[in-house]
UniProtKB/TrEMBL annotation:
The keyword Membrane does not apply. This is Alpha/beta hydrolase-fold protein. The keyword Hydrolase applies. It comes from Microbacterium candidum. Belongs to the AB hydrolase superfamily. AB hydrolase 2 family. InterPro entries: AB_hydrolase_fold, LYPA1-2/EST-like, PLipase/COase/thioEstase. It holds the Pfam family Abhydrolase_2. GO terms for molecular function: hydrolase activity. Residues 12-204 form the Phospholipase/carboxylesterase/thioesterase domain. Keywords: Hydrolase.
Length: 212
């Protein structure tokens, strides 16, 4: 199922997007494009920001949308399919030469998988309360050679992402990307203002990189 281009929230009209770096927001399970769009005031306004809606509907009575079925948490097939669908939307509906991703939870996993699938396509990833999907991809060696910047933030009291996936991510990420980020004491499966300040600093540094 494809992403719906009619429900994407953009920070600026189409006429103001040319020549500017694009930051795409990918929400978590049971949410929609309006959720992470609330972060826009905290993010550098040099980016054109697009907040997209995942294409799947969770089982009733869960509201919102999903990138892959929740029972596929930790499996690579669903995450890879979701990342492939997202890249197809990007190919069809954007022309930005510099693209970064910011995903929360499921959206974080999909963002990292998209980076793995096309290491040269994405400038960086911000992974909030997400994880790296287990399983090797043919493109992982190219990713490790390029080592793009990734910010990973998570809470010390986040009990949503299973510990084995966190442990896998802790081991896998430093070997494949230029990793930065923090574990925030007392934070659950959510985002704090302290974390947003760190994300903004990370994004400002990436803008500096793109300007070089």
């Amino acid at each position: 199922m494809s992403l719906d281009p009619e429900v994407v929230r953009w920070s600026v009209p189409e006429a103001e997007r040319a020549g500017r770096p694009l930051l795409v927001l990918l929400h978590g399970y049971g949410s929609d494009e309006n959720d992470l769009y609330g972060l826009v005031p905290y993010l550098p306004d040099s980016f054109v920001i697009a907040s997209v809606r995942a294409p799947l509907a969770p089982p009733w009575p869960m509201p919102g949308n999903a990138w892959y079925p929740i029972d596929e948490l930790g499996r690579s097939v669903g995450v890879t399919d979701a990342a492939t669908r997202f890249i197809a939307w990007l190919d069809e509906h954007t022309e930005a030469s510099a693209v970064g991703l910011l995903g929360f939870s499921q959206g974080g996993a999909v963002s990292l998988q998209a980076l793995r699938l096309q290491p040269e396509r994405f400038a960086f990833v911000v992974n909030l309360s997400g994880y790296v999907s287990p399983g090797a991809l043919e493109t992982d060696a190219a990713l490790a050679a390029r080592k793009p910047h990734v910010f990973w933030g998570r809470g010390s009291r986040d009990d949503v992402i299973p510990a084995p996936l966190v442990e896998h991510s802790v081991e896998w990420l430093p070997a494949h990307v230029e990793l930065s980020g923090r574990v925030y004491p007392g934070l659950t499966h959510s985002v704090s203002e302290e974390e947003l300040a760190d994300v903004r600093s990370f994004l400002e540094h990436r803008l500096d990189d793109l300007a070089e």
